[in-house]
Design brief:
This protein is of the alpha+beta class and 251 residues long. The chain contains seven helices and eight strands; from the N terminus they run ββββααββααββααα. The strands form two sheets. The chain has a six-stranded mixed sheet. Strand 5 (95-101) and strand 6 (104-110) form a beta hairpin.
């Protein structure tokens, strides 16, 4: 699909996370390119880390690109289980491969859009703009139930990692980032029960972060029932942060 090196100066940045930036191009409406931010990788693609972890990280394979490896592993695990005849639409983007870019190695992934071709909005964007509804909260529940059924492993949860699309004629929630096994022992990949327990915690954490987004000064007032529904997660998150615990997953 891409020959040689992609010059991302010709692309536009459509998203960014803690470690990665995401680029799109109007000539390639179905794909995005994920690259590591320069400050997140060292010489030779090593991972920048705290001084006390730097020595251990020098012996780990993939360096700063371990986040790519985890995401690819999870996609492969899900893709191997279904053939085209199964007609299963996974709640994660397809991965098309890698490409060399002027920002280093890039991961080429499916671009999740709306039916009009525009980039699908994230839960964070919906919350900030006052467009988050009770239907979206129900979609979060349904997505995490689906993650449990499919045994999808997640390494991170953030409102910016989930988008709402209507590309199939109805609204649905897709997780566009944060999948993969982070545990070195792969305990969540091996144990469905432990993964389900972790997904419950992650669901609660996502709702707590959404509540925090609604509470920030930049957020536009929206559906008050949504704010009320998320209120207990916000309070739980604040209480657990004060004592150094993760959000309580009581569902």
């Amino acid at each position: 699909m891409f020959d040689g090196k992609i010059e991302l100066s010709d692309w536009y940045q459509c998203g960014a996370g803690h470690q990665r930036s995401v680029f799109a191009h109007q000539l390639y409406p179905n794909v995005l390119v994920k690259v590591l931010k320069p400050e997140s990788r060292g010489e030779g693609g090593t991972r920048r880390s705290k001084r006390r972890l730097r020595f251990l990280n020098t012996f780990k394979r993939f360096g700063a690109y371990r986040t790519f490896q985890r995401e690819v592993d999870e996609f492969l695990e899900q893709a191997r289980r279904f053939s085209l005849a199964d007609r299963v639409e996974l709640p994660i983007p397809r991965i098309f491969g890698f490409a060399n870019t002027d920002y280093g190695l890039g991961l080429i992934v499916e671009k999740i859009t709306m039916s009009n071709g525009e980039l699908a909005p994230t839960l964070r964007e919906l919350a900030l703009s006052g467009r988050l509804t009770a239907t979206h909260l129900k979609m979060i529940d349904e997505l995490f139930e689906r993650f449990c059924r499919l045994h999808i492993v997640m390494m991170d949860v953030n409102p910016g990692n989930f988008v709402v699309t209507d590309r199939r004629g109805f609204e649905e929630l897709i997780c566009v980032d944060g999948t993969g096994e982070k545990s070195p022992l792969h305990i969540f990949a091996f144990s469905r029960r432990m993964n389900e327990a972790r997904l419950r915690r992650m669901r609660a954490k996502l709702l707590a972060k959404l509540a925090g987004t609604l509470a920030c000064s930049a957020a536009v007032s929206g559906d008050e029932s949504v704010r009320a529904a998320l209120g207990r997660y916000r309070r739980t998150d604040q209480r657990n942060r004060s004592i150094g615990l993760s959000p309580d997953p009581a569902l």
